[in-house]
Fold each of these.
Amino acid sequence: MKPGKLLAAALSALMILPLAAGCAGKADGLTILGKKSDLEKTYMVRVFDLYEKATGEKLRVEAVEDGEFEKEAAARFAKGEGPDILLHFHNADLDRFDAEADFLPLNDQPWVSDLTDSARAYCEDADGNLLGLPFWENSVSGCYYNKTILDSLGLDPASTQAEFDMLCEALAGIGKTPVCWPADGCSWMPQFALDPVFADDPATLEALNAGTIDYADIPAVTDMVTWIAGAARSGWFGDDYLKTGWEDISPALSSGEAVMAFIWDTWFYTDFTPGKYTVDDFALMPVFMGTVSEGTYEGGNLNMMMVNKQGGRVDEALAFLAFCAAPENYNAAFDGIATVNCFQGQTTNIQSPMVTAAQGSVAARQRVSTASSRVRGYSAEDTLSALNALLRGKTDIPACVSALDRARKAAIEEGKG
Amino acid sequence: MKKRFWRFWPVLAVCAVLIASVLIGVFYFRFISEKIYADSTDHLGEIYGQVNRTFSAFIERNWGLLTNWGQYFEREGEVTRQIADEYILPKQNHWRFTDFYFISESGEGMNIAGETAPFTLSGAWDRLMVQGYASMAGERLPDGTEVTVFAVKPERHMEYEGFGFDAIAMCYTNEDLAADLRVDAFNGQARCFVIHADGTVLLSTQAGGSVFSNYLKYLDGASDLEDGDLRSMRADWEARASGLVNCSIGDEENVIFYEYLGYQDYMLLSVVPQSVVSAGFLTVQETTVKMLVAIFLLLGAGALILVLVRAHRQSRKNRLELQYREMMFDAVSRSLDDIFLMFDVNAMRVDYLSPNVERLLGVKAEDAAADIRVLGTCAVDGDVFIPKDELLAIPAGGSLRRACAYRHQQSGERRWYRMAVYRLMVEEADKFVFVMSDRTQERQMNANLQEALDAAKSANEAKSNFLSNMSHDIRTPMNAIVGFSALLERDADKPEKVREYTRKIAASSRHLLSLINDVLDMSKIESGKTNLNIAAFSLPELLAELSIILTPQAKAKGQSFTTHLKGSPPETLMGDKLRLNQILINLLSNAIKYTPQGGKIEFTVTDLPSPAPQYAKLRFDVRDNGIGMSENFLGEVFSPFAREVNSVTNTIQGTGLGMAITKNLVDLMGGIIQVESKLGEGSLFTVELSFATPEEAGGDGWYRHKISRMLVADDEEDVLSGIRETLRDTGVEVACAAGGVPAVEAALAAHGAGEGFDVILLDWKMPDLSGVEAARQIRERIGGQVPILVLTSYDWADIEEEARAAGINAFMPKPFFASTFFDTIRPLFEAQEVPVPEPAAAPAALKGRRFLAAEDNELNAEILSEMLSLEGAECDLVSNGAEAVKAFNASAPGTYDMILMDVQMPVMNGYEATAAIRAGSHPEAGTIPIVAMTANTFAEDVRRAMDAGMDGHLGKPIDMDAVRALLGRLLEQKDRGERT
């Protein structure tokens, strides 16, 4: 971040402090609505505390159970009872809201220039409107592999899809599980493969969202499904992958049973339990899932603080966002948190050595999380469901692609309704 | 043991052949495998040796080119872009390397275009820069491209466009080099690496790149090679030796071949799956196996076809044999009366049942096959089929025998069987074979034999009894005859004694004669020589004659003898009157004989409904209240020579043949005779007979005699109804009175009304008023115009005088017959009192007559002559038929009144003599009465006599009463000029 921009942000924060302080005596502070689990994140709690201490204003943080959040939030906005600030991912569920009517575009806010490119890209809609302030642990999703095992076997990480397939074959041939693919808990993995399809070709994304083409019309989608089916058939996911879930990823990687996983760096700091192997044994290479030969990385999926345009306290809300975007505040909030930078001025967070080591490759191959956030009706769960039906032998590849389309269209219908 | 071995020897032989085949196969395949494997590995070595040589030449060439180019640059002194473009680029196009680099001592490289890239020449830097040797190394370019670099160090330091360099290099992408090193052998499944002696992979032939950085490490982690093996292999590499190692990577067996590349420490290493190396063997093995399988299959198919053909032939032969056997067995069993069946007791199922079961037992074969217990229902004694427990108690191989009787379910015919049940094991199944051998004929034969034996015994016994009885019965009268004859001789001078003895001798003689007659009659009937002489006869006459004969006998014993008629039977019947008379006299005389003094005998004739109009069916009941018969004797009463023995019968003379003769005669006439009796209470004999009825001439006696109203009085309703029935269609009005008093009243009333009866018929003995008394009262009141008749079963001789005095005009016997009635009243209406004719056999009839008698027995001739003499007649005796013919023919007409002709005579018998007389020319040949006098007394004898032309028949011994009656009648007819 350039010094001039940092100064402007600091001044803005100082300007709004009195305004915020003026409201301190009010009984009803800014209302912030979010998922319960999201609002309990350390850095969120920290920034709320910092704000309340700095302004004296008490925030009304309304935490909704995870399973009920989307409907509850959408209902409240529909009734004109939306919160001042909504904490939400830029994903398909955002279609439940009328973004243009509900949320204030933030392109002209002073802190925008401090955002990293990938973070900003994630938060923009198709028209380039910045929907919210990304305030979340950022990450790089890719293929994290056990470099110790590969080194011991005299194997190199893959740089192409062909090499990745060779690697899988070599590992599978000696009884290793090349890729950890927990069938009941890997809903995010397919989107990694689809990101370059849409990120690299916006026209395709536009046509798909316009309904002029289907997944079946996009060869890369079929390629991905074909690769997943072939990998499963070749034993690259192991023998019992259909019985495994989210909780099985850590044991598989820490024990060395599985050599690689399509996941993100911060997972190693939040969910990975070291075993025979620790985080230091892992390294990052691109994800290869049949779509692009050179592989791909996905940028972070971030929670955004979105300002309710219809709320009565838009200015206070913008002031709160400016407070959060101030370097001293986000550095205080993310101090010691493992995350890739969302702000250019982030210095206190922990940068993953895996990402750092692969920085060049990441820079060359990373895509913004596009599939899940930009494809209308995309549902990670529906995608997984359709793929699992294929992997369990209930459908074939064309039927699976059709099922993906049906699920997508159904979600669009539901969102419209 | 031996037997067991020989039974299984084919199996053992097949097993031995199979084991030998497997052993030979294993040996063969092992040999082939080793041979082909050795060849394949040699082939592998040859192939990669060639690759090695090619690659070595490639290296050599590159280094040679670089050396030349370095010398060229040295000669030029300065390398400019123009020199490089003009000199190197054509070379690049020609040798198709990827790029050309100038390399500085600091490890930086620059290509002709001026692009820089770092060069480490992993491990080969010192060799190049320090030692000045041409080198080869792997390198990753900034864009990530993996390349193999060939570099040489020129003699001196030079510059390219200001960039100082100490070495020059040409590089090829690994992908390009891999394509050159790839071999098509082993189906493209062979991997080839150029590796350093430490295992680092310089180059891989894998398409799409390589993920192997150090193949030694990979083998260490992924293969089953032990540390020692790996060390040994590495030692080989360091020693630049060639080698071949077998190892398993994952689940796949691989062959690793390595050979020194010839430069630096590089080795050429190839990894080929063993399955590929052994593909030739596998192909040979597969082909061999296929061929062997094909051969075995062909041989097996041939053997199978052979076996099937033979099996089919044998099966067909067996089936035909079985079919023939079944057909023969069926045919035999159909013609036999023996039943065969095979039975499974556990399943209660019939496996085989001979088809004759329906013919013999009337049970459908399928029904019996479905449930064998059906046969049990045919058992005569109601026994069920042999119980399962009893069957199971038969030991295996044992049998059970029993006799049983079955009844044919349709015809009811009873058959006897000898059943034999055999328990057999048929193919380890427990079976029971039933052989039901028909013993019906045998049993019937035995029964017949037994019956015949019993009959013979009975007959023998009866004849013994008969002889015993006859001995007694004959001796008794003979004793009397002999005794009284002796007394007669002694008292010949005492006329009273003579008459008494003569009378007793005559009585004994008659008894003896009747005894002989019965015996002969019985003998005749039993021999089947008795024939019936069917002719029209008058039932009223028959009954009247019976009454005449038997009433005196009953009267003599003080018995009541009454005759009843029920219904209105035809008066004229067609039948053998003589035999019918004999039947009824036997029954009635027996009733009189065995009924004590003062007893009651009732004779009833009943007209039964007849099945056809031209026949009459009559029942004759003879009921008495005599001594009766025991129940035991009832069963034998009709047996010959049977007589009940008790204190009463012992005093009564009899032959014991009367009832047997009666029964035989009834049978002969197609009738039925039955008897009911109770000892001490009396007996009832019933005879039912059918007679043909001749067409009767219509009678108009009633009209002629102007009888339109008749009064009948009787205390018995049956009598009254019988008369009413008899007169029903005659137009005569019958008024009935149930006693004498009502009869008088009815007669007076009718007379008073001016409608008097034309005839009054009164029973004699009526409880309220007797017929005689009733007649007297009627006569007193209404005078003597109307004829009054007494109807009675009794002999009216004793009351005739009193009755006539009372005004009774005539008597007629019961039962009432129209013909008898007319015969009785005719004289009254015609006012011609005809005296009752005297019997034709009046003694006077023979007086003055002259007979010609042919008799060969002098004694009989003398008796006849004397008896005729006593009658006042004369008799000329001749000793045979011929003499009789001669004497008659010689006589003047009118000499003889009659010829008495014996039948059995010497020279010419009586029949022949009669025929000769009749055929003769004597004027009286056709009219002279000829009477047989013969001991041949049967009806046939009578008929034969008549057929011979005789006019009458008299049986011997001569009964003078009969002689008088017959001769008197014939003589009277002769006198009237009639031919008898």
Amino acid sequence: MTAPATHSAAPAARRLPLPGFVDGTLLTLVAAAVILWFAPSGMGRYGTYVLSLWLVMSVAVMGLNLTLGYAGLKSLAQAAFMGIGAYATALLTSKVGLNWYASFAVSGLITFAVGLVLGFPALRVKAHYLAFVTLAFSTLIWLVLRNEQWLTGGVFGLSNIPRPSFFGLKLDGALAFHRFVVVVTFLLAVVLWWMIRSPWGRAFTALRENPIRAASLGIDTRMYTLLAFAIGSAYAGFAGALYAPLVEFIDPSPFSLSQSFFLLLMVVAGGAGYLLGPFIGALLGVVLPEWLRFAGSLYLIIFAGIVMLLLIACPQGMSGLLERGWAKLTGKKEGAR
Amino acid sequence: MTEVLEVSNLHKAFGGIKAVNGVSFKVNEGEILGIIGPNGCGKSTLFNCILGQLEPTEGAVKLDGRDVTNMRPSELNKLGVSRTFQLLQVFPELSVRENLILAGQEHEGTMLSRFFGARDAGLSAKAEQMIGFFKLGHLADAKAGGLSYGQQKLLDAAMAFMAGPRLVLLDEPAGGVNLTMLGDLKERLRAINAEHGATFVVIEHNMDFVMSLCSRVIVLAEGKVLAEGTPAEVRANPAVIEAYLGH
């Protein structure tokens, strides 16, 4: 075969004196982290808490975005995995006396392992059948959290969950803990960014778009299916490990099936299969209802209306809408994600 | 000559329907074998059984003398067996270049090196070469889903060759492709066959394409081998004319 002329388009980032791996998404993540570090100034405790909660939910949505948005596996158990992570961290830090960092790692490992096991049905069943398997798992976890009072405190929950410290620096205050959440979320987002732009990300996308063709190209679809489930679940576990010290009290209600549906809504509304989609989705799910509080009891109706209009106008969610807008503005065709 | 592929007494039944009914044949290294037959005669089912996408009811498939019956498609691909599909099977959301890199990446390194290593798995140069070879240069960064049918067919074929396979099964590569692109495709398949000694098995309805490309042709009818021979022998076979080619 004769070597052809190359036609590689130089990415915009190459114009700047930056390492070759730096792209627009990474720069956006860095800029967002810097802004969020300073954002709570003048917001007060509640405003800071809402910002932190947005980031924590973004971590859980990032995991579901990997499982659903990239790998195309429909899961309704993300809140259950978040619950496993939250309870594991709460128990390990408040009852066992383990430090938060070790508890965070253990929460991730437990949810990774459970996600791996739950991934096995995904090898046999697809689409809504898989969704029902995960729905059953979600219900099972919620029942365990509610009924096994000796371990989880039942409906009374677990309280006095300590916040971590950082090299002796106490993170008990809302602002200090918020900044800690910003750093952890940023690191987790960078890991996912790296994964998605690596050959793994390409394989996950192939799994979503055409698993039969993917297998014919040597892609081990079993391995990638299990990994997508396990890593997506581990991110929910990490989110739970951040959530427990954020709220300092947990009970089963935030980890119910309805919360899993809400996380799914955040993935879809933010833009499934877009790396920054989870942040936009979680912004809609967590912060928008706060902005709509002026509407009193009507806020949920307005919120539902906004989401319906968005999904009718752009089924690819906010990220798809922004991509379309950017493409129109620059006169370029929408590129491959 | 070395036998690359050996199919022995292969059967595949769907309930009471015998889609493949005792098919046996061998493919030698460097050969281009054509499989023709009327619609519904079991050609694609035969491919799917050989490639592990369907479980044969009976029979065996050997690759280089090794039994690979029921081996998973991904494992077969790692052994150097590649394929294209009757219907378009590119990844529409990925660019042409990304489709090609994807088609070769699992043959490079390990799972860990694919995570920590280069984004292109070291395949950019090879992808560029393939893009040029299949005349897709102006479309390298376009989404595959936005390409014309013929261009997607070329991409589909290019993907099958990214990992440097030694056996490629092409399912109706000429279907829906215009005459100019068809000429390009045939020229490229011949070049790969001549330069790299790759072995092809081609299912096709386009008789001119098959007869001018293949050195040997098998005719299937109702799941069985009806005839086998050189293109000239097959063309002259009264049973083939009666069942498939027409008068």
